[in-house]
Structure formats: structure tokens, C-alpha cells
Amino acid sequence: MGALRERMAVDLRLRGLSPVTQRMYLRCAERFVAYYQRSPKALGESEIRAFLDYLVQEKRVSRSTHGVYVAAIHFLYRVTLDRPWVVRRIPFPRRERERLPEVLSQAEIERLLRAVSRPKHRAMLMAAYGAGLRVSELCALLPTDIDSQRMLIRVRAGKGGKDRYVMLSPRLLATLREYWRLRPPRGPYLFPSPRPGKPLSRMAV
Q1: Which is nearest to 29 in space by CA: 76, 85, 63?
Q2: Fewest beta carbons less than 10 Å away: which of 18, 149, 150, 180?
């Protein structure tokens, strides 16, 4: 996308969207453009519909992922390209009926943790479940976010782009310390990816 990608990135920042949302919208827009190998200015409603139908019918993306693609394409045309008429009739998918999550028993949690052998994976699982972190929040954790003095975890740019604090249990702290002792992470992130200086992606988790 080149210069167009940079324009869209600036528009996303100026709108105050969270860093996670910015990355998702840019990735979706890039895949849309790559699908046709043409400038989005040369594409219209029929091409957008065909691309979204391809995602649903062939790629079998979830309804939520489909919705992110629609939102990203709407943003691209309405804001960055200033062509709102192109997406005026592109519908958002119906929202899925929210279901209450199944809560694991203490015994089930213990069995799950025992099944995880790698310290890094065990620490990630305990942090996500025990501290109630979203996957994106887990991936963005820094070592300095772990406050062992106040027994708190700082969550950066959570839902709505807001920071918050969650409780750090003694057991989770001990698990994180074991992970750090056995395999201290390289780079700024607590759970780094194989790419130097980069966090784990949501897909990797």
C-alpha cells in the first residue's frame, strides 16, 4: 500500500483508536489490496463484496473477524480515501449472541496447568487465566509491568485504549519468577516472539 498505508496509519492514530485496533485495521486493508493487486481507488462496491464473500465462503473466517475486515474497509474508504459512497451499502455482519463462558473448576485448572511443560507457556496461561488478560494484553506485557511490591500488573492499552491494573497473585508471581530464572526473555517484552524486539502475535498464542 505504500504511501496510502502511511496515510491510513496517521488517520487511525488521529482517531485515537487503540494500538491493537490500528494494527488489525492496517493488516485487513493490506490483505484487501493484496487480494486484487490494484489500488483501492480503482475498486468499487462489487469488488469489496466479492472479497468479503471470499473470506466467508472460502477462508471460513469467524463472524467477528469478518466484522473487523468490514470495519477496516469502511475506515479506508470513508476516512482515508474520502469515498464514503463506495461502502455505503456494505453491511456489517450481525452480532453473534453472546454466551456466558464456561468456568473451569479448580481441579480442571490444575490438570490444565500440569499438562503444560514449558515454563513460558505455563506463565502465559496462568497470566491470561489468573489475571483475566485478553490475548492482546498478554502479548503486550513488559517485565516492568509486573509490580511485585504492590502485587499488581499494569495492563497497557487495554479495551478502549485504556490502561488499568489487575491483581498479581503470589502463585502467578512465583511462576513468572521461575520462567524468568530458567529462560529470561530477550528484548522489551515479557513474552517475546522469535522476531527480535517484537511481541508475540495473537495468532501465535
Answers
A1: 76
A2: 149
Residue-wise pLDDT tens digits, 15-52? 988 888 999 999 999 999 999 999 999 999 999 999 99
Residue of 59, 38, 56, 60 lying closest to 47 (CA atoms): 38
| Residue ranges per structural domain of the chain | 2-87, 106-182
Matching CATH number, 106-182, of 3.30.450.40, 1.25.40.10, 1.10.443.10, 3.10.310.10: 1.10.443.10
Q: Which three cell numbers stand for residue 30?
A: 493490506
Are the C-beta atoms of 199 and 192 separated by less than 8 Å? yes
Quick one: pLDDT band at residue 205, thresholds 50, 70, 90?
A: low
* CA distances for 9 relative to 16, 18, 29, angstroms: 11, 12, 11
Write down the architecture of domain 2-87 according to CATH. Answer: Orthogonal Bundle (1.10)
Nearest to 27 by CA among 71, 85, 62: 71
Contacts 24+ apart (CB under 8 A), 85-88: 86/43, 86/44, 86/45, 86/48, 87/45, 87/48
